[in-house]
Amino acid sequence: MDGPDHKLRQALAKRARAGSLRQLSASGAGIDFCSNDYLGLARSSHLRTLIDRIRAKHPRAPLGSTGSRLISGNSAAAEHLEARLAVYHRAEAGLLFGSGYAANSGLFACIAGPGDTLIMDELIHASSVDGARLSKARKLVFRHNDLDDLAARLDEASGATFIGVESLYSMGGDTAPLPEMAALAVEYGAGLVVDEAHSNGITGPGGAGSVVENGLEDCVFARVHTFGKGLGLHGAVVLGSKTLRDYLVNFCRPFVYSTAPPRDSLDKIEAAYELLPELDAEREQLFSLVRHTRSAIRESSFQWVESNTWVQSVIIPGNDQVLATAGHLGELGFDVKAIRAPSVPAGSERIRICLHAFNTVDEIDGLMAALENLQCVDMSLRA
């Protein structure tokens, strides 16, 4: 009889044959074009100083939170931070989570139940998809950013209906048509949920996000702002009405049954939001690099995903081919990562190039030249 891990070995072997076996590796030493540290805050000495200053105000704070928020892990500091985040993002209330995955999965798992409908963009984050799977609601999917298909799904919906989208999609860098989606949500009486993970800290006034940038605060049911990307930290907040906050405190299992974020994490988030309004120069530098990259792409012989944001993707079909390309670029000093199927549909494998405020024009030009000069990329893969 096979041992208990036989099935696991078979699954790993199948993935290895497909060229999609995932393995952990240390972050590369080359020029960073792969991390989500868009504003460079994860390496910011200024942010570190602010964090140290805030920590110094309570030197005897416990190292851990000691329990869930509903047992021993709540604090005045956590509630003060949630209120501050709500004001910053122009929402009525907010609730902290230990990660964006916990926030998205927990939110979608509990807001809809039997007889209700969840309608998701086909490219929404896996965390939102997993939350929808955990709910007992009907699940519908609409074509990416397709307003007509979204309206058709809304016509099929029953019960309380929620629409799940991202303001900026992480695998292609394209953005959702939020004003039009909000108008549809209002027309059909649906709740629009916007994941601002890759916009937080960058778009909108002071980096308050795309919902605020478009003046849609009163048209959106819930927003998820994570801290692990543009803010260079960890964790997330769900923003919405006070009713939504109270509901999540009672029914959102990842919140109810998770140990609360420790004071150290709260201090870091507080410091980041203290610094965020001062980062207009970093945001403008990032936007400038995006414009430069898009100009360079016009001369490229490769197929690129259409994007006017800090996430750019060059299509290299085939898991083996995209891995080889990323490896060769790594040898040339560029830290990039291959995005393979099944993370993206087969045939759309890509190298995702993340731009950062600390990157330079010369670094981008060097990467583009290295890509064009690659001998390992078959000419048939070029546009």
Give a topology summary:
Layout: H1 6-17, E1 31-32, H2 45-55, H3 76-88, E2 93-97, H4 100-111, E3 117-121, H5 126-134, E4 138-142, H6 147-156, E5 161-166, H7 178-188, E6 191-195, H8 210-213, E7 222-226, E8 236-240, H9 242-251, H10 253-256, H11 263-275, H12 280-297, E9 311-315, H13 319-331, E10 334-335, E11 337-339, E12 350-354, H14 361-372
Parallel strand pairs: 1-10, 3-4, 3-5, 5-6, 6-7
Antiparallel strand pairs: 2-8, 7-8, 9-12, 11-12
Helix pairs in contact: 2-11, 3-11, 4-5, 6-7, 12-14
How would you portray this structure in words?
This protein is α/β, with parallel strands linked by helices and 383 residues long. It folds into two domains: 20-39 and 279-381, Aspartate Aminotransferase, domain 1 (Alpha-Beta Complex); 47-277, Aspartate Aminotransferase, domain 2 (3-Layer(aba) Sandwich). Helices cover 40% and strands 14% of the residues. Strand 6, helix 8 and strand 7 (222-226) form a beta-alpha-beta unit. Helix 3 packs parallel to helix 11. The radius of gyration is 22 Å and the shape is globular. The N and C termini lie far apart (52 Å). The model has no long low-confidence stretch (mean pLDDT 95).
